[in-house]
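Ligand-bound model needed. zinc ion.
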Amino acid sequence: MIKSQFKDWIKLTTIIAENHQEVPDIECPNCHRFGINYQYVGDIKSRAGFLDIWCNSCLNGIHLSRTKAPETVSMLPFDAVEEYKKKVPRFTPIEP
Ligand SMILES: [Zn+2]
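Prediction:
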C-alpha cells in the first residue's frame, strides 16, 4: 500500500514542474485533501538540490534528494535554514 502511494507522490513532482509557482489544487495521495505544498532547496545557480513535498492536512510527504529544480519554481539556497524551518513543517516521509 505504501509502495503505490510513493508512486503517487512522485507524480506530484511532474505537476509541480508544470505548474510553476503555486500548487493549490493538488490532491494529497494520502488524505485526499488539497493541502499539498513543496519546497526546492539547493544551489541557486545549478538548480541542483533536494525537493520536499508535503501535505499540510495530514503531514505526510516525500523527500527527494539529488533532484534538479525547474527554472520556473522558487528555490531556497542551502544556507537558508531559518526560512526552510518556517516554511516546511515536520512531516512523515513516505518511503519508496
Ligand atoms: Zn494529506
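The chain has a mean pLDDT of 90.
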